[in-house]
């Protein structure tokens, strides 16, 4: 029940092109024939509204595990050759362990939770420093600089500046 077409139509169009990418139907359609249709068209799971976020996450983990597309581990974030392990509180780039301060770690973690998404200075200050920042915003630029120096020692630049907006975690294209 999407604006321009149904999820069933999208599943049909994807067909063989989806190359193993799992499909989970999340819908208000709770009739048995709709569930059968969704699963027959290639859906890996079919969840009806209302649902809990915890249930949806459990279903996503199960579908990803079954499909072999990805190993879902919410405590490990990956971007390019950068890995942040929340349980071990470690950051590794390539084969090199990177020592970060607590603030650098929180900043990197927030960027890695939002890869390829431009984050405003306000968003970063609120999420990393946990308050409405009314002071000197240069503290953010200082920490981004520290983080870049540590990360860029072990590979190409990953933190990009979007002038007048903020920062984004993305690999620079050649």
Descriptive report:
- With 174 residues, the chain is an alpha+beta fold.
- The chain contains six helices and nine strands.
- The protein has helices at 7-14, 32-40, 53-67, 102-113, 121-129, 138-152; strands at 24-27, 45-48, 76-79, 82-85, 90-93, 96-98, 119-120, 159-162, 166-169.
- The strands form three sheets. It has a four-stranded antiparallel beta sheet, covered by helices on one side. Strands 7-9-8 form a three-stranded antiparallel beta sheet.
- Helix 4 (102-113) packs across helix 5.
- It is elongated and about 55 Å long.
Give average pLDDT, whole number.
Answer: 84
- Approximate shape: elongated
Main β-sheet description:
4 strands, antiparallel
From the alpha-carbon coordinates, what is the Rg to the nearest angstrom?
20 Å
The low-confidence runs, each spanning 5 or more residues with pLDDT under 50, are none
* Count, helices: 6
| Strand content range | 15-25%
Provide the structure class: alpha+beta
Measure the end-to-end span: 40 Å
With strands numbered from the N-terminus, the spatial order across the biggest sheet is 3-4-5-6
Tally of strands: 9
The level of helicity is: 25-40%
Q: What is the helix/strand order?
A: HEHEHEEEEHEHHEE
């Amino acid at each position: 029940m999407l604006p321009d077409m149904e999820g069933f139509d999208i599943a049909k169009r994807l067909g063989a092109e989806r190359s193993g990418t799992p499909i989970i139907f999340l819908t208000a359609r709770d009739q048995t024939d709709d569930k059968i249709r969704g699963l027959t068209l290639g859906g890996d799971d079919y969840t009806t509204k209302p649902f809990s976020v915890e249930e949806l996450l459990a279903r996503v983990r199960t579908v990803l595990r079954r499909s072999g597309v990805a190993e879902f581990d919410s405590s490990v974030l990956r971007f390019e050759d950068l890995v942040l392990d929340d349980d071990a509180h470690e950051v590794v780039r390539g084969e090199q362990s990177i020592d970060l301060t607590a603030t650098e770690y929180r900043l990197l973690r927030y960027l890695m939770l939002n890869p390829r998404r431009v984050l405003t200075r306000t968003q970063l200050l609120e999420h990393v420093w946990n308050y409405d920042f009314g002071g000197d915003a240069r503290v953010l630029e200082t920490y981004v600089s520290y983080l870049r120096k540590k990360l860029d020692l072990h590979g190409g630049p990953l933190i990009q500046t979007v002038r007048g907006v903020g920062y984004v975690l993305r690999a620079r294209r050649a």
